[in-house]
Amino acid sequence: MLANGDAIARLRRLLAAAREVAKDALLVPRLIESTGLSRQGVELGLARYLEHDATDDEVAALVRGVMPATSVHVILSANVFTAPLRALAVACAASSRVSVHPSRRDPVLTCALVENASDLGLVLTDATDVRAIESGEIHVYGRDETVLAVKGAAHADVRVRGHGAGMGVALVDANVAVEMAAHAIADDVVAFDQRGCCSPRVVFALGGRAKELAEALSRRLRAMEERVPRGKLDESERRESVRYRETMAFAGEVLEGAAHAVGVSRQGSTCLVPPVGRHVHVVPVASVEDARAWLRPIERFVVLVGCSDERLGRELALASHVRLSPLGRMQRLPFDGPVDLR
């Protein structure tokens, strides 16, 4: 088992490898191809959201929160291309024996990190039969169905830590300037084209300013499209985009741009979550209690609340694993453990 000092040293070595990876210009075209993001989107992710600048306090907190294991097998998904760094950090803090199964759709950053930190003993593997793993832990990231399948197949002596589907929501207090809130939320939406579990897809507006906030957010997303163009949507995502826009045109209002849509629901509307790809659903609420009620059907998926008022954000958080974040920093959480704290 790793001592705390050894675990911290391993994480510092991994973060150093991430800094080297972030400077590798040859990685950018490969990431464009694997992620579907625009060049600007990939460059933004590497420059701003690859968490190689973690503080000493964050690294120490991550190590304290990890349970040591004899070995860790990591199964990764492909939603956010920078996510492998945090997943590998959690595994490396838990054990000196780490095997990694990269996402088949987007293995680029995972392979680069493992190659640049080869002295940590990280091993890439194509093995998919978790029944062959007889000890240690499995850390699985991805769809809930994937997590359940791994838990069902794993050996009885193997602990499975699952990190399934998630999403972010934002809460805008009546006392916050609308333009300021819109700029911050747009930053959180544009990162990774909203595909991560930290990405805000629903915004609750207190104080009767939902339409004003939606208009400001739409303007900001339109302006950001010029700087960071949206990448490709697959066929399923395009269909979901059309369906959401058509639904909101009938059930509320939709403010559309070439690469975004901001829907505004009516007061007292039922739960409706927009698709990824820079689609934001603004919900007018009279109180945090109203927002909680709206979220009840999907509460198990909420892993992050972005807020301007921490007290109100804590009132909206529906479970202990839900993180809080200032608006504009929902994609830059403290590097102190898994994103969802599960």
How are the SSEs placed, and which strands pair?
Layout: H1 4-22, H2 27-35, H3 39-49, H4 56-65, E1 72-75, H5 83-94, E2 98-101, H6 108-116, E3 122-124, E4 137-141, H7 144-153, E5 159-163, E6 167-172, H8 178-190, E7 200-206, H9 210-227, H10 235-251, E8 252-257, E9 260-265, E10 279-285, H11 288-295, E11 302-307, H12 310-316, E12 323-326
Parallel strand pairs: 1-2, 1-4, 2-3, 4-5, 6-7, 6-11, 7-10, 9-10, 11-12
Antiparallel strand pairs: 8-9
Query: Main sheet, how many strands, which sense, barrel?
Result: 7 strands, mixed
* CATH fold-level name of the largest domain: Aldehyde Dehydrogenase, Chain A, domain 1
The fraction of residues in strands falls at 15-25%
Low-confidence stretches: none
What is the number of E strands? 12
Distance between the termini: 22 Å
Superfamily (CATH H level) name of the largest domain: Aldehyde Dehydrogenase, Chain A, domain 1
Report on this structure.
With 342 residues, the chain is of the alpha/beta class. It folds into 2 domains: 4-163, Aldehyde Dehydrogenase, Chain A, domain 1; 167-326, Aldehyde Dehydrogenase, Chain A, domain 2 (3-Layer(aba) Sandwich), CATH 3.40.309. The protein has 12 helices and 12 strands. The strands form 2 sheets. A 7-stranded mixed β-sheet has the order 8-9-10-7-6-11-12, with helices on both faces. It has a 5-stranded parallel β-sheet with strand order 3-2-1-4-5, with helices on both faces. Strand 11 (302-307), helix 12 and strand 12 (323-326) form a beta-alpha-beta unit. Helix 1 packs across helix 4 (56-65). The protein is globular. The chain starts with a helix and ends in a 16-residue tail after the last strand. The model has no long low-confidence stretch (mean pLDDT 94).
